[in-house]
Design goal:
The protein has helices spanning about 1-30, 30-70, 80-85, 90-115, 115-165, 170-180, 185-195, 200-210, 215-230, 235-255, 260-280, 285, 290, 295-320. With about 325 residues, it is mostly helical.
């Protein structure tokens, strides 16, 4: 009996000692601390690697933005770019012929009305250098306005195409076939440029040259950064579409709030010529002194200069950039 008890006690002692060795050995030998240190080092390396990758990505994006900004520096557009922005198929020869026609027409009109060669010369300069460019700028602004109305719909169509699994170039081809003008022609130019070997990012950048709007610039930056750095293009474009729509709502709200001031400015600016015309109809000999006498000419020039300054000031006060 004593022997059995001794054997049981010895076995129990051995079992307890074995369990103690199992649980206490890592603590005594420092293995547990070593494992914790290794895990901490591995976690630190992973964080450092993620931070380096994030820093590299930020630097890449910053370099891309700087490169895009350098290429899109504000510079005076060429005559061909003015034609593209206005959406007309003119050539330099056509523009020169139109300028000559406007110059002679306005000079002849001023000569008939005033009988002064100096004013006719001024009308020739304004007609030849001012009217064609003013008309091209007017057509360009009208085309930009039409583009901006349809552009958010095109971006949302691209987002739906991406989410359904279509490649980006197929989404652009879809817009080029089914969207409204001038969005359709601009995206068709991207598809044609891609067929000639140009990348999508470069093709989108050319849209900004023809449609110099900040919304198009945002779109170009998104496409170029995504082509270099990757990312969720569908989500980014969806946010861009919302931003463009919000900007349009804000622009319409500002236009509605400033419409009264614009009407007042138009009435104030139109009153002097209208009063002068009515005075000419009622008493032509009385108002003819403005262009038949030297003092009248000086007074007329002073009135025109002051009216021009007043119109520019009012225009600056009622036009808001959004």
């Amino acid at each position: 009996m004593d022997t059995q008890q001794l054997i049981v006690a010895a076995l129990a002692t051995i079992a307890v000692g074995g369990l103690g060795m199992v649980f206490l050995e890592p603590l005594l030998s420092g293995a547990n601390r070593a494992e914790k240190r290794q895990a901490a080092v591995a976690e630190s390396r992973a964080k450092r690697r993620a931070s380096e990758e994030a820093g590299a990505r930020r630097r890449q994006i910053a370099d891309s933005l700087k490169e895009i900004d350098d290429r899109q520096k504000a510079k005076s557009p060429t005559l061909e770019q003015r034609f593209e922005r206005a959406g007309v198929s003119w050539t330099r020869r056509t523009f020169i012929l139109v300028s000559i026609g406007c110059a002679f027409a306005l000079a002849l009109l001023m000569l008939i009305i005033t009988g002064k060669l100096l004013l006719a010369l001024g009308g020739m300069i304004v007609g030849g250098l001012g009217l064609p460019r003013w008309w091209l700028n007017r057509l360009a602004k009208k085309r930009q306005k039409l583009f901006l109305q349809e552009f958010p719909n095109a971006i949302e169509a691209i987002v739906r195409g991406i989410k359904s699994g279509l490649p980006l170039n197929d989404c652009f081809r879809l817009i080029a076939n089914e969207s409204k003008e001038p969005v359709r022609s601009e995206f068709r130019s991207i598809v044609e440029a891609q067929a000639m070997g140009l990348s999508i990012a470069d093709g989108v950048e050319r849209i900004y040259e023809r449609i110099p709007l900040s919304e198009v610039n945002f779109f170009s930056i998104v496409i170029q950064i995504q082509s270099k750095s990757g990312g969720n293009l569908g989500e980014i474009l969806l946010n861009l579409s919302k931003v463009i729509r919000d900007r349009k709502k804000l622009r319409d709200k500002v236009s509605a709030m400033s419409s009264e001031a614009k009407s007042s400015a138009g009435i104030i600016g139109a009153l002097p010529p209208l009063v002068g015309f009515l005075t000419y109809l009622g008493a032509p000999d009385y108002i003819k002194l403005l262009w038949t006498t030297k003092a009248g000419n000086l007074g007329l020039i002073g009135c025109v200069v002051m009216m021009g300054i007043g119109i520019l000031v009012m225009r600056k006060m009622i036009n808001f950039e959004v």
